[in-house]
């Protein structure tokens, strides 16, 4: 049993911010050159994507909760031909 629900929006936001940090850490170490303006579209685009994913996830979860669960008492048509 899971301790909490998976939240894909937060996962995407964290991954994008981690990627931005790794890019600038590599630049600070001298491994590669990262222009200063790379962070702005990367972070804003990642946060917008994370927000859209979080919105879709919440809508899907809300819809699943409102649909009544089907019972498995009726096995359906006999498929033993």
UniProtKB/TrEMBL annotation:
Keyword Transmembrane on entry: yes
Domain of life: Bacteria
Transmembrane spans: 35-56
Keyword Transmembrane helix: yes
Alphabetically ordered keywords of this record: Membrane, Transmembrane, Transmembrane helix
Protein name: Integral membrane protein
Upper lineage: Bacteria, Bacillati, Actinomycetota, Actinomycetes, Kitasatosporales
């Amino acid at each position: 049993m899971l301790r909490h629900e998976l939240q894909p929006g937060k996962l995407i936001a964290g991954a994008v911010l981690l990627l931005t940090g790794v890019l600038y850490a590599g630049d600070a170490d001298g491994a590669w050159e990262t222009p200063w303006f790379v962070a702005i579209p990367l972070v804003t685009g990642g946060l917008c994507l994370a927000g859209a994913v979080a919105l879709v996830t919440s809508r899907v979860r809300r819809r699943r909760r409102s649909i009544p669960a089907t019972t498995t008492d009726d096995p359906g048509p006999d498929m033993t031909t």
